[in-house]
Amino acid sequence: MTKKILIADDEEYIRELIKASLEDGGYEISEAEDGILTLDLVRKVIPDLVILDIMMPGIIGYRVCEEIKKNPDTAHTKVIFVSARGHEVSKMTGQMAGGDDYLVKPFEPQEIREMVKKWLG
Amino acid sequence: METNKDPRSIEWLQAFRRKLITYALILVLAVGLPVVGFELQRPWNLLDQLITQGKIVLARLSNSFDQQEIERMNRFALKVNGLTGDYDEDYLIWSFNLLVTEGALPSEQEMKATLKENDAEPEDFDYQKLSETFGFWRNLFNQEPGLLELFQKYKQALIDTRNYSEQAGFIFVDDYVMVDDSKTLVFLLDSLEWYESSYPGLYYDVVENDCVYFRDYLKNGPGYDTDPRHYHLGIFPKFNTDQWGTWFSVWLAKKNNGVYNNFSIDFSADKVKRMMWTLAVLIAGISAGLLLIISLIARQLGKIISAPIEKAFMDMRRLDEMKDNFLSMVSHDLRTPMTSIKGYAKLLIEKINQYDEDRQLKYLNIIIKESDRLTRLINNLLDLQRFEAGKTKFPLENVELNGVISESMEAFGSAADDKRILLEKSGPEGAVTVYANRDRLLQVMANYLSNAIKFNHEGGRIRISLERIKADAGEEVKVTVTDTGPGIPKDQQSRLFSKFQQVEEMARTKGQGSGLGLALVREIVEFMQGRVGLESEVGKGSSFYFILKAKAQGEVKND
Question: CB A107 to CB B504 under 8 A?
Fold first, then answer.
């Protein structure tokens, strides 16, 4: 079955970059550009994995992650934070919010591919 | 609570202040208590010393008067009270003395000679008065047979005692000091010290148990309290041999006050103890009060001294936090375009053969755009730093605002079209001139417009309005860029133009050069003597404006 991935980032080029990096994986990819849209889409699509930016307009990434993990329908959904914030504190906050992994910008296409593979098998 | 060990921390400073106060208190106590203690035991020490050195001796005035004789002298004193009103007191004392010691009044010549000899002749010596008062006494004594002899006997006893003490090497002190409170006691003991240093010896009376009784030589004199537990204290200057003067002062006191005891107060062992305790409690109380006051003053002083330091620490800490936020924001804003540049470059290298030409061009264009963004960001950053260091100066000249607005609208026309945003302008046409820098004004407009486009929804509107406003200091021009975006909460508006923004705000207002752009706008406009601001309501959009002083039309041509 095709795995569903949601890419949430307010930067269009970053979304496109992630999408292009994953295009050979045969995933079904959807996109959201702010926290509110992300939550709407997550409820609608029930993705297997969300690649989540932390500093997004609307609702901050940590909160989005909490909401995803709280909802029983999407509790199984893996969340990878992708953020420019590389500090340990940010990573810990991500973990506490329920995030499964954390990728610091700038990242390479190979890195995101491997991380997605790791969580989706 | 564990104390912060960092000497820059406020906790450390507060702990340091507490320690300082404690040490100061301990120091004051360490110095103050021994002093208080020493002061408390000083009088007793002095007495001990005097006793050990034998300066206080048992030298009783002869007990040669019985109760009847004492009562008789008392009665006589009372009788005299009512009779002496018509006479001069000095002559009364004088003649009384003559009667008791000589038994007769010397002739005027003899009297004058004696006075001259003693260098004591009063300038207005009146033999007549002396003779009258002498007669007065003689009449009184004639009415009471044997009384004169009684006084003569008493006088002789005094002379004997004096002789005895002088032979024994002591000073027969002859002045009357009454003790009725602790203050006088201290004064008295200090006086003893003075007498002790001034004369080779002292004459005291009785030492009994652990208390000292000073018994005056009038103890068996007229009006004296005969209770053996109540002794009168008397210290008498040595060279006044006129003991009758003393007797008369007691008598006069009695005459004036009617109560002898007002003048001569009981001085018993219990009373001494009570007095010393009162003294001790008093001194201890005063010392404690002083210590309290000193510590309070020290505390206040400490606060006053450390307040500015504490404030400086707090400011430093806040600056630190702001710097952290700033760095985290700059880092974020640098990393985002970096991610795109590096990511797309990697993709192109990986899959150059898979991608068609369109896609290759698209990615290359993204790389160029993001590089531009990075450049702009770095320029902004450097600009801002230069502004803050006061190094940025740009020339000011007359700038026509409508032209600036038109140019920036053209520049952002395609970006607005991409999001189907309507760009419109309102306000007076024709020349609206301000004293500014054209390039910098374009930079300000670019910031406002790019934000307005970025945060606007698809199909929204942006209106640029130009207004002239009247102000106290002359006419001003206000340029406002209003969008139909999500708006900014009130509590976050004030910080928007600051270089440092909290993460929460960044999450909402994130964008190209977020924060930095507006901070730079403020620096630029303030350099032009203008001001910036915004009005916004959540859900209704935001209006960012800047206000500059208008140039009068006439001035434009002259400039």
Answer: no
